Amino acid sequence: MIDALFRTLPKHGFHTLRFDFRGAGASFGEHDHGDAERLDIAAGIDFLAQMDDRGVWVCGYSFGSVVGLNVVEPRVNGWIAVAPPLAALPNPARVLASGDPRQKLLLIAEYDQFSTPSQIAQTTGEWINSHQETITGVDHFLLGRTQWVADHVAQWLKNAEQS
Question: pTM score, two decimals?
Answer without folding.
Answer: 0.92
